[in-house]
Write a structure and sequence with these properties.
By secondary structure, the protein is α/β, with parallel strands linked by helices. The chain has helices spanning 2-6, 24-32, 73-77, 91-95, 128-132, 180-190, 205-211, 230-236, 261-267, 278-281, 284-287, 324-332, 389-398, and strands spanning 13-16, 40-44, 61-65, 81-83, 105-110, 119-120, 137-142, 154-155, 162-165, 198-201, 221-227, 252-257, 273-275, 293-297, 301-303, 308-309, 312-313, 316-317, 338-342, 346-347, 352-353, 355-356, 374-377, 380-383. The radius of gyration is 21 Å and the shape is globular.
Length: 409
Amino acid sequence: MATALDAIADNARVYFASGSSVPLDVLGAMAVERHRWSALEVVTEYLVEPIPLFDHPNEPFRLLSLQPSRAAASMAKAGAMDVIPSSLRQWGDLLARRGPIPIDVAIIHVSPPGPDGRFSLGVGVATPIEVIAEAPIVIAQVNPRMPYTFGAGEIERDEVDFFVEGDHPLVELPTPNIDDVTRQIAARVIELIPDGSILQFGIGALPEAVLGSLSSRRHLGIHSGMLGDSAVTLHASGAIDGSTKPLWPGKISVGLGFGTRPLFDFMHRNPEIVMLPASLTHGSDVLRRMVGLVAINSAIEIALDGSVNAEMAGERLLSGPGGQPDYAIAVSQSPGSRSVIAFPSTAAGGSTSRIVRQLAAGTTVTVPRYLVDTVVTEHGVAELWGRSLTQRATALRAIADPSFRSGLA
């Protein structure tokens, strides 16, 4: 470990894998040995929980986040965090040597080598595989608990400069609680998913509820940024065979796995799963070819003109765009595909409508109104594609909570 840490120069910019691939042993050692550096900028994406570095904001660690989350609240409070507005497809380009945020050191999390001597990035491939292609120094934490997955994440020994041993459970995304409102929304969404659809989905209770309710469908495919726990059960039902996919037919094609141990075990050496870089999971040239794609995402609020905010609650930044804009753009260019924005009609215990007259000044527009297709709440489905502003407002009012509809008139 000490030799690997010696390779991290003072004032370096250091990328580390996120999601379920956070290399906790290396980051813990960096926190203990923080006296080595006067300043380090660490760059990462979505985090489920705080990491050891966050106990030492500005001493020496500063965070540059591509996908902020509540896990980094202590860094934000200490003024040791900044955010790069960007979609998932852009992350690899941003961090490349030719990009505006070139990485000096990449810290990744890999499985033990397979019979052919190659290692695997396991459950986190999308951005890490693009970063290590150009990072001058690559440090790999080898963990026997990381599954070996096939595809773009299989790497040769000579692609890594330093190997360190680690042995800790992967970071898990807890199984979300699915309440009655979420089930009602999911029931409406699944009516929009015919047999043979190709699915993309984000993080949260709603995508899990939708996938958990599709067991009666057949010939479904998955091409998505991530794979969650519910995909394991859906696959066991026989609903997924990938037969309609023009690319990677018969395969589940994703960039990362984000869930709990049963998902990781399902992914381990599974020949039906192919892991891909973000340029392929979110690239418009690929997605436009996925005819019959149904992209299922959520939002914090939506205005009556269709503008979607999926990042801010009031003045608080809760998240980033992720892959939602990438899929919204691609679906708009693919006949026969559909983008679904689904969320509960209210927040704060029913005291606030999530359908609003207009987004407040300063609120981020995650998906502009001209890319919004279908919106679903527990009260119904609003089809916005090709509708006028007046028609959109009428359709969205109809699926707002009844107690707020008069205020939206």
